[in-house]
Design goal:
Blueprint: E1 7-8, H1 9-16, E2 19-21, E3 27-28, E4 30-31, E5 41-44, H2 51-56, E6 61-64, E7 75-77, H3 81-92, E8 101-102, E9 107-108, E10 113-114, E11 119-120, E12 125-126, E13 131-132, E14 137-138, E15 143-144, E16 149-150, E17 155-156, E18 161-162, E19 167-168, E20 173-174, E21 179-182, E22 187-189, E23 194-196, E24 202-205, E25 210-211, E26 216-218, E27 224-227, E28 232-233, E29 238-239, E30 244-245, E31 250-251, E32 256-257, E33 262-263, E34 268-269, E35 274-275, E36 280-281, E37 286-287, E38 292-293, E39 302-304, E40 309-310, H4 311-345
Length: 362
């Protein structure tokens, strides 16, 4: 089997533990979405909502769930089609082979420990005391600071910066431009200037974490900023000093987590969520996009909006907000009717309320 010649459907059925409905000798050479697939491609139907699109597709074969039928081509039926799709894509697009060694233009400190099976790309810098584990791939222009540790099987893409003392576990993937271990944002005003608080802690990234492009994870003031095992972090995320994020959480693009906050296990922070400092988000919480969190979140809570409220409550508020212009028109009309009625009855109109100011809150 191999990508150049493609795969027969029989080979794919065996590799994916699928039940094949169709010719096992039929060959496919690529994977494509339903609307772009041709006769030499295998496509996939993961969501039943796209059943009509699948029936219109020109794909040569389909990866489907156990209950799908009546598609215009052979079908590979599996119990979990999304998981099988991952394996299918890996078959057609395998990772490039690891070529151990250190590029001539790389700069590796004499006392750095680089495993013989690691691959160090062009113009990489590995500083004194750093440790690079087995089968690590460090791509061009990446930087590994003094005393940093990169666990076995990890991948640092181009221009990644791993600052001094940062520890990455096994199988960590860091995408281009990410910076791990920059100083946390800490200052104290002495009456004349903002004095920088030394950031002398570290960062620990546990096994199987993935960190997106241009994400920043700051070192702790004291102690550690910690990302627990299996958590996946999208692009352009900011994680501040002394934050801890629990295992298997999902942090989506442009999230900001302020200093010393604690995010639990299996938490989902959707795009552009903001977490204020020193807060706790409980295990299994779901916070939807653009929500602002200014209080602790209980385990399993589902929040939306700024300020964040229960999802159902926020949606009800949004419905009412859409009705506000019509409500305002009805209120003004009711006030005019009331004024006319009071005039007919000879009742003096009350003085209009004085506009509230900030002083009224004192």
């Amino acid at each position: 089997m191999g990508k150049a010649a493609g795969f027969t459907l029989g080979e794919l059925a065996a590799a994916l533990h699928a039940t094949l409905v169709g010719d096992p000798g039929r060959n496919v050479t690529g994977v494509a979405p339903l609307d772009a697939a041709g006769p030499d491609d295998i496509s996939f139907l993961i969501d039943p909502r796209y059943g009509a699109a699948a029936k219109r597709s020109r794909a040569g074969a389909f990866l489907v769930g156990p209950d799908v039928s009546a598609l215009p081509g052979p079908m590979l039926r599996v119990a979990a089609p999304q998981q099988a799709l991952i394996d299918l894509l890996a078959l057609f697009h395998p990772a490039p082979p690891l070529t151990p060694g250190i590029a001539p233009s790389a700069i590796v400190a004499p006392d750095a420990r680089v495993d013989a099976t690691a691959s160090i790309g062009p113009l990489v810098v590995v500083e004194s005391g750093a440790v690079v584990g087995a089968a690590v791939r460090i791509h061009a222009l990446a930087f590994v600071g003094r005393g940093a540790e990169i666990g076995g099987g990890s991948i640092l893409h181009p221009r990644v910066v791993v600052c001094a003392g940062v520890k990455l576990g096994r199988g960590v993937i860091v995408h281009p431009g990410a910076v791990i271990g920059a100083d946390g944002f800490g200052y104290a005003f002495d009456g004349q200037v903002h004095r920088k608080i030394p950031q002398v802690g570290g960062v620990i990234i546990e096994d199987d974490v993935e960190i997106g492009a241009n994400t920043t994870i700051d070192r702790a003031t004291l102690g550690q900023t910690v990302i627990r095992r299996g958590t996946k972090i999208d692009n352009l995320v900011q994680i501040a000093h002394n934050v801890e994020i629990g295992a298997h959480s999902i942090i989506v693009a442009q999230v900001g987590v302020s200093g010393s906050s604690r995010i639990g296990r299996n938490v989902v922070l959707a795009g552009q969520v903001g977490i204020a400092d020193h807060l706790t988000v409980g295990d299994g919480a779901l916070i939807l996009a653009q929500s602002g969190i200014a209080r602790n979140v209980e385990p399993g809570e589902r929040l939306l909006g700024t300020p964040a409220r229960a999802v159902v409550q926020s949606k009800r508020i949004w419905v009412v907000q859409e009705q506000l212009p019509a409500m305002a028109r009805r209120l003004r009309a009711a006030e005019r009717r009331l004024q006319r009625l009071e005039g007919q009855l000879g009742i003096a109109a009350p003085e209009p309320p004085r506009p509230e100011t900030a002083d009224d809150e004192r």
